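Q: I have 291 residues here and want to know how they pack in 3D. Can you give me a structure?
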Amino acid sequence: MKTGTRKLWTYAVFVAPALFFFTLIILVPFLRAILFSFQDWNGISDNIAWAGLDNYATLIKDTGFQKSFIFTLKYVIVVTILLNLFGFILAFVLNMPLKSRNFLRTAFFLPYVIGPVIIGFIWQFIFSNLFTQIGDVTKWSLFEKNWLSLPNYAFWSLVIVTVWHSVGYFMVIYLAALQGVPTDMLEAAEIDGAGKWKRLLHVVLPLIRPAMTINLFLAISSGFKAFDLNFSLTKGGPFGSTESIAYHIYLDAFTKNLFTLASAKAVVFFLVLAAITLVQVSLMKRKEVEM
């Protein structure tokens, strides 16, 4: 057997299992969802009728879907800003020669290792019980309220838990980028008279733009796909005010048996998310600096 053929078979053997599971678990369900979006089926019966664009017409008039989309958009904007801001600040501080920096890096990253569902249930107890007990002792009105029963407070509860849970992961990416900034460039800028802020704005930030691109992509995509924390912390409440798109689609499909309508919503959701992330990545890539 020739060397080229042997290499081809070696690649095929290693790639085939991953390709098989990707096709079985992701590609086939995705294509079936597109097909279901043009059909009428409750997910249980044997009768599957062709509906054409009826599901998409119903989707346009669905106020619940519009409400969940607006909430998700607001959630994504706030979470993306906070995760990247605090992630960079933590990385910048923990890149300094501090004695406890290794311990602090581990401490900030540790919550990301815990599953979001478990985190949601833990924080549900904190907001519902611990906060009220703190309010009883301190008489601070902020803690006397049940955050999960008030729409505005429930939104910020989700934001706080999301940032607390994921900021360590964003910190690690920014930290790796900061450690890759050449020290000779910083020294040259300092010799030229650039202060700390100018070195940060004109040397460090342009050089870590690839990390910014990755973190913005991760924050936007994970924010739009938010489900675990939404399910375990607020369950879309109160009164559907914190119902994300992913959770809204889940409720339509598996509690209301509106399986094909949920498929249409999932297809539209995918197109919107793909368009936003492609635009974001392309815009950020243009501004990246090559070393």
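Q: Anything worth noting?
A: Residues 32 and 54 are 17 Å apart (CA to CA). The longest strand covers residues 39-40.
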